[in-house]
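Input chain follows. Return structure tokens only.
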Amino acid sequence: MKTRLILYFVLLNSPYIFSQDEIGISKLKPVNDYWSLGFYASGNMRVANGYDNKPIQPGFGGTIEFAYNDTKRELLFQLSKNRLYSGSENTHYETFELTLGPRFIDKSGGFIEFNIGALFIKKEFIYPYIDFEGEHYYELYANNLTPNLCGSAAAGAKIRINNHTDFIFKLRLTTSFQKEMFTYLAANVGIAFNNKKGNEKIEPTKTNSYFGATIMGGANNPGPLSQQNYDWGLNMGLEFTYKSSPKIELIMDLGYNSIEEKDNYENPKESYGSLTAGVRFNMNESQTTSFIEFSGGLYSFSFRNYSIITSEYYNDNKDYAGFNAGTGIKIGLTSLIDAIAKTNLNFLLSEKYAHVPNYLTFHGGLRFNL
């Protein structure tokens, strides 16, 4: 009985054994699926909308795109933020878009794509007024971000730069399906990084480099994540990394952010100190690559408070747990130095009515591979 079982096993597996060539490499069709991460800048074109029946003036924005390519099509997940100006001098719109859908690409690189998802729309109005002393002030009024079902269609082209990098441009029409229809056209231009597997040999710059230290600097703004009107503030910090595998790094960040609220009579000096740790996922191991990262930790919020007893302001601070998510680009300059640019959304786990703003950072720096 055992002999017959062994014979059956050999007969069933012999096709697989003889499908290999003389050096033992399987002749099965290789898997060419891959992931990509794209960054776009956009210019928005004038389209009428149903909120105030005035044409929207040209605006600007940006998009982060995650894509999975199965050789037949790409499945897209897009996060897009746009500012669109209206016919009124003091009014503009902020939109945040989350959409999902397919992209169909032909052999020449041309493509069409269709997406459906949610479009959050916020209308902001800056109201000028004069106080009793004749001073001019401006107040920002904004409605809450309202979610709307939306759809979009786009046509464009993908141009290969190298095996891991593509240049992409497209013309994209987005519209909401609510009663007050909101429609705009955007021209997007960007670069996508992927983790394609190729036969090219990548010479390692420094195979024994596992630790890295980065000096960071840049700017922050709570405005996109808050109902209040904030100005841009200073960001600086240190980042330490440990490469646990070719595409995964453990990260720890020490950060400082100065935050200033616009049009506040007392002009309080607010700031964040943060200590976070997390993980970074690199798309590939080429000289230029993109990444996504997730971290969590402690945020210390410093602000000015008012004392009813003394009728004076004093400095106060509170500690909060928080987390952030970000994406960016890393460029290898030499075997010892990389340039890094990234953006992060920071969220604090605060009380419901506490004046503790979440904030957005844009920062970059030089990384030294140790």
